[in-house]
Design brief:
584 residues; single chain; 20% strand; 8-stranded mixed sheet; alpha/beta; 6-stranded mixed sheet
Length: 584
């Protein structure tokens, strides 16, 4: 075990004893802490190892004493059942050995608070290792394992004991891990044990307005303990989750000490000094980057989630079916902002029911986004299926079956292009439609990712207006308007039969979305929703549609999580379900 000598600043107070005063030296400690906000790839241990080392080198050049990483940076977060594979755990162990050997070569380099799955006495933990001068000198394990929403840590990790502070350069560091700070007891225990500064690795996924919740949470822990705290969060997309970064630190009085950018990697040095009263405070020159708010944050989450899903999975780009409607237009805008126009292939697939206006709108949108657009008519496919199925359908009137054949014909075309050229099909359905089953299995639900999956239709409209007026940080698409105003203002339609409008089958979207929000995010009963001002027959109808569409949602592609109750891990209902809560 190697403990570096303390770094001391000596403040000299020379006082004339003849005037009744004395000479004294008051010594204060300093600690330079680098915050490494990185974008790891789950399972890419070698790549993540190299990111860890590169951040360490940057911190070393900045003369840091220690580097703080986000939660499970070496494995990527969440690693899920990968950690149950002995070979994966061996790979992590080898990577830690490599990091130790590499960092030992630079004697002036900082220590690392390296986060990784780690076995202690044969038990697997979500852990942080203090590595100093090439040696593991201390280990702490996460005590409070989350087991709700998208988190299943009790499935793969054992809870560690209540942690004690880590002594480093004469300073007692409290290192609670993510969930350990969401309730007071772990921080209180560490503070009572003498922790002077809290360094918190986090893997906290994005939700709309969650940054305010995090800030309030850390303010509470700082107020309770009276100690400063640095909150280091992961950044990047991982399947349906987007980690938004936005790492920050608070001084012991609750004031903002440092704030890193959201939705981007960064390594930032902060310098902390203890005053003559023993209180630690960050130097005023630390950056304080503002966090995006409202629609800006949601849009950036969509961009990062799609970009990382495509790039981390090795797709050359995406292919999108353009209908001339608002959902495909917004999906295309996000895709271009995430990947660039040269990696986005837009395809119009008209039928006899497609209006000339829709064709014009799709072409105009593609022009604004600076992509090409091609047209593949599904009329021949419709005729072929009609002929093939005529004997089986004899005596039956046309109905939704023929509408679904149109949607599935388009799915076949898009999947054919995907198979031939490698581009991933990006589906364009929104949360309102998926909630009530207003989508076709193996048709418009066909694809690899759904960027609008957790956005209600009213939010889709708002994002289109917002993007036409703003180009978010990190977007690589065109400046200015990217979605024609006519697409935003015209009544939504699937155009699967003459003069079809969405509101022929559904309540107006502002009504539908409020009912759905109360049902899904609020888990409110029919009676509660009716009492809030909605028509009872409409509420009951929406409830039935929501229940009956579970089998479709179970087969839907993944998509960016935006709300607290995204379809998938956040909301788990049985498909075969005899319970309906239509009375209370």
């Amino acid at each position: 075990m190697v403990i570096l000598s303390e770094t001391w600043d000596i403040a000299h107070y020379v006082i004339d004893s003849a005037q009744g005063r004395s000479y004294s030296n008051i010594m204060t400690k300093k600690l330079a802490i680098a915050i490494a906000q990185l974008n790891p790839i789950v399972g890419d241990v070698t790549g993540n190892r190299d990111k860890v080392v590169a951040a360490w080198e940057t911190a070393a050049d900045q003369a840091a004493d220690v580097v703080l990483y986000s939660e499970l940076v070496l494995s990527g977060y969440p690693p899920e059942d990968l950690v149950m594979k002995p070979a994966f755990m061996r790979h992590l162990h080898d990577a830690v050995e490599f990091i130790c050997e590499h960092t030992a070569k630079r004697k002036d380099g900082p220590a690392l608070l390296l986060t990784t799955p780690w076995e202690v006495d044969g038990t697997r933990h979500n852990a942080v290792l203090l590595i100093d001068q090439g040696k593991i000198v201390d280990v702490r394990a996460k005590n409070d394992l989350p087991n709700y929403g998208v988190f299943d840590e009790k499935r793969v990790f054992a809870a560690g004991p209540m942690p004690t502070p880590i002594s480093f350069k004469g300073v007692k560091l409290g290192v609670p891990i993510c969930e350990d700070v969401w309730t007071p007891h772990v921080v209180a225990h560490l503070a009572n044990a003498g922790a002077e500064i809290f360094l918190v690795p986090n893997g906290s996924p994005f939700e709309a307005d969650k940054d305010d919740l995090r800030r309030k949470l850390i303010e509470d822990r700082v107020r309770e303990s009276g100690k400063p705290m640095i909150y280091c969060n992961e950044v990047g997309g991982q399947d349906e989750l987007v980690f938004d970064g936005g790492s920050f630190g608070l001084n012991g009085d609750g004031s903002l000490a440092v704030a890193l950018p959201a939705f981007a990697e960064d390594v930032v040095l902060t310098t902390w000094q203890q005053d003559e009263n023993g209180k630690w405070r960050c130097a005023d020159d630390a950056p304080k980057v503002g966090y995006p708010t409202g629609l800006d944050a949601i849009y950036q989450a969509l961009v990062l989630g799609l970009r990382d899903y495509v790039n981390k999975n090795g797709f050359p780009g995406v292919v999108i079916g353009m209908s001339g409607g608002i959902d495909s237009a917004l999906s295309a805008a996000v895709a271009v902002d995430a990947l660039g126009s040269d990696r986005v292939r837009l395809v119009m697939m008209p039928s006899p029911y497609t209006s000339a206006e829709s064709l014009e709108d799709a072409e105009l949108c593609a022009g604004m986004l600076k992509t090409g657009i091609e047209s593949i008519n599904i009329g021949p496919a419709m005729a072929a299926f009609e002929q093939m199925l005529a004997p089986a359908f004899e005596g039956r009137d046309a109905d939704i079956t023929e509408e679904n054949i149109q949607a599935r014909s388009r799915g076949i075309i898009l999947m054919g292009l995907s198979n031939k050229f490698g581009h991933m099909v990006l589906t364009t359905g929104n949360k309102s439609e998926m909630s009530v089953g207003y989508a076709t299995l193996y048709g418009d639900m066909c694809g690899g990712y759904s960027v609008l999956k957790d956005l209600y239709k009213t939010t889709v409209f708002n994002l289109c207006h917002w993007r036409n007026e703003h180009k978010p940080v990190g977007a690589i698409g065109p400046d200015g308007m990217v979605i024609p105003e006519r697409i935003i203002t015209k009544p939504p339609s699937a155009e699967l039969r003459p003069d079809q409008k969405d509101e022929d089958s559904l309540p107006p979207y502002d009504v539908l979305d409020d009912i759905l929000h109360q049902m899904i995010e609020g888990e409110r009963s029919v009676r509660d929703i009716v009492d809030s001002g909605h028509d009872e027959a409409t509420v009951r109808r929406v409830w039935r549609l929501l229940d009956r569409a579970e089998y479709k949602r179970r087969q839907a592609p993944p998509g960016v999580k935006i709300t607290p109750r995204a379809f998938g891990r956040d909301r788990r209902y049985p498909i075969t379900n005899g319970f309906t809560n239509l009375v209370t």
